[in-house]
Amino acid sequence: MESGERGQCQTAYEVCVSSTPEGLAGEVADLWSSGLVQSAQSTQVSYAGTPLRSRQRGYWKVRLHDQSGTPGPWSESACFEMGLLRGTDWRAQWIAPADYSMKEVPPAPLLRRAFQLPAGYKKARAYVCGLGYYEFHVNGRRIGDEVLMPAFSRYDRTSYYQTWDVTPALQAGENVLGITLGNGWYNCFTEEVWDYKQAPWRAQPKLRLQLEVELANGRTQRIVSDISWQAGTGPIVFDGLRNGETYDSRREQPGWSAPGFDASTWKKTRIVPSPGGTLRSQQFTPIRVTGSIRPVSVREVKPGVWVFDLGQNIAGWSRVTAHGPAGTTITLRHAEKLDAEGDIDPRNINWFIKSGQCQTDQFILKGEGDEVFQPRFTYHGFQYVQMTGFPGTPTLDSLTGITVHTDFKTQGEFECSHPLLNTIQRAARWSTLGNYHGIPTDCPHREKNGWTGDAHLSAEQVLLNFNPDTAYRKWLRDFHDVQRESGQLPGIIPTGGWGYNWGSGPAWDSALILIPWYLYLYRGDRAVLAENYAAMTRYIAYMTSMASGDTVDFGLGDWCPPVGEASDHKCPIRVTDTAYYYVDVSRVAIIAGLLGKKADAARYRKLAVKIRKAFQKHFLDRGTGMVTGNTQTSMACALYQDLVDPADQPNVLAALVSEVEASHRHIDCGILGTKYLLHILTDLGRADLAYAIATQTDFPSWGHWFEQGATTLWENWNGHASRNHHMFSDISAWFYRGLAGIRPDPGEPGFKNVIIQPAPVPGLDWVKAWHQSPYGRIESRWTQEAGTFRLEVTIPPNSHGEIHLPTSSVASVCIDDRSPSGIPGVEPAGPDSLGRPVFKVPSGHYRFSCAVRRSC
Ligand code: RAM
């Protein structure tokens, strides 16, 4: 089906899955032939064939029938491979160097195993988990392009292994497997605030590896981790996720992971306890090196002290090239602020690290020509790098910024005629990427913690801009591993135990319900709802146990308001908490219904009604429209979270508008209210006011950060803390949903119905946005000039659109320069709640125009 062509839809599909590539030639396959399924479902179709076994390959193809009823061509074939499904598939043991001491921080261990292979082997797979992090070499060659693997998890409940196709790296005769182990989150020894040093999983780095080689005679040769492996050490003499890394190249052991190396002095390994939980295959987007940045300047700020400026705040590390005598030590310290002398100022990001250096790497030269260094088992958040000990005068070529994060792909873009909004959008993307490393973190330097609140507040924009789907699925599993029997959740996930009694509460914990909900809304994913349902209901029960009179009040509130400390918000916690309680319960009621749990659905619906009534009784003054606290957050919360009856809406909106006007059209919210405010003003017809707030450049505003040179989003409006946080990033979702108007429909999720509801605010000349939905690319581009609004939309095949036009004159509406009545499939509907005409359209590309209404 072609995107842009009108009225394209699917009427039936066929899927074939075969255990061999040849088995796909016909129309019936051995593992699964769906047969002709009369269905419009073109996404989220699950495998329903013969149960799959460990290691099994499946080759598959699909074809669909369009509205003409004729089958289209078969797709090209694709394939998948199963991992090790049963515990008994694992013959490998967990091993570690025999002489490791947990008293000090020993160098990163090297583990090595040599073995022989006969000629003519067919294929080889290595299943590997090295904790905390590992790097894998076969015959001197590095395997894969992933870094900082496996992803962080609550290791004593779940750890992840990767499967590597090492067929091309092996050879007949002698082969060598080599592993370097890093400490990572598994052996986080740094004294800090979140007690990872006391984490129940903490132990020395360890390895489980199973190589399976299919030989010419059909038998399998297995090489597994056991005490036949040898242990050595190499150039990484120190690695601390929270401190940095020291690499002494004089201690390199050339050829250690290749055949022919003399390992006679290497030491023994021993069998060690497993991390204690389930080993699962890593089926989510890995962390990779995603790019490099050449510094924009380098200055000597004191004799021998050089400061590089990347011109961009990033997450990753520095790569250094140097030439000098053996033993020369180059020290790099990473920061995101400068002091008055132009030296780095790490004070806004180092205060929680109580032992060792912060974000500091050291490279020691071996004195042989140009040497290139970069760390492997740590990463930093920074824009500036202070370099000392460099032999000679560094140039812009001496250091490169390397970006490292979960390798999300772009799934949407937004641009408009206002440069500041484009700058905010760009910064939101940088902060999002720099804050995903196997888990969504709050910041890449000071904490690297999986704060739940930050993650759900930004999840909608992440889903519009990128493809976090598999990463979110994994992180939600992490919730199951830390949720207490009572349903309680910690504020950071994973956690080693910290964060249950401070830093959580409904406004943070709701991530467990809202992120699956957003995956359903934006992707149509029902499986994620089923996977998390039990945990969600446990959490609701926990909130109910904490409630009094159907309101709740525990944990954190509208964090980081413009004035005062992070907790100095004006909106009481009971208001925002009770609203999340309501939202969570009403979402779970819908989810229960979708999963066919009728009794649960009815029970949660009833509870939601009670909470809503309690909210109105305790917090809403119907006469004045004020909500307790009478702050922007209070009123925006009540309206955005659907706690106000339609009859009371005008009053509450008026109270909100008067608060916004009293702040001279500036934001006066913390992270919670900021998410509600722009959306709800737009939805209730005051997009102009939302736009005024979004485009301010003096304190407090996004623009004010950029006036001070920001390249990422900051933690708070006054800029005193981290400068790479994503918890104020939902404004990017407003760009798509509010300005471009691309919205999912909860009734037909995953963009089966694409709602386009643009807001041509005065002062904005044009907007263009696209988003890759499960059905294909959605586009919304508009211009306004001399009172005429022009909109181009693309609704992808097998979905349909609902276009809300910002006009009060239905008569002025044209589609493709003609009257809508003449366009096949287009049906007028509406008006919507703001009185705008609505047109339902089949898939395809359309050009609309109309006389623009001033207040939209
Ligand atoms: C800070 C974190 C995070 C926030 C918590 C409550 O330490 O950086 O952004 O969610 O506080």
Task: Give a nutshell description of this structure.
The chain is built from 14 helices and 37 strands. The chain is of the alpha+beta class and 856 residues long.
Fold topology:
Blueprint: E1 10-18, E2 32-33, E3 57-66, E4 78-81, E5 95-97, E6 109-117, E7 123-131, E8 133-138, E9 141-142, E10 158-165, E11 173-182, E12 206-214, E13 220-224, E14 230-233, E15 236-240, E16 244-248, E17 267-271, E18 278-281, E19 287-293, E20 297-302, E21 305-322, E22 329-335, E23 360-364, E24 371-373, E25 380-388, E26 399-406, E27 412-416, H1 419-433, H2 452-465, H3 469-482, H4 506-509, H5 511-523, H6 527-546, H7 573-594, H8 598-619, E28 620-621, E29 626-627, H9 632-640, H10 649-662, H11 671-683, H12 687-694, H13 702-707, H14 731-740, E30 742-743, E31 753-756, E32 766-773, E33 776-785, E34 788-804, E35 814-815, E36 827-829, E37 838-851
Helix pairs in contact: 2-5, 2-14, 3-5, 5-6, 6-7, 7-8, 9-10, 9-11, 11-12, 11-14
Structural key phrases:
856 residues, alpha+beta, 14 helices, 37 strands
Molecular structure report:
The protein has 856 residues and is α+β, with helices and mostly antiparallel strands. The chain is 21% helix and 28% strand. The chain is globular. The model has no long low-confidence stretch (mean pLDDT 97). The structure holds alpha-L-rhamnopyranose (RAM). The site of alpha-L-rhamnopyranose (RAM) has 11 residues, from helix 2.
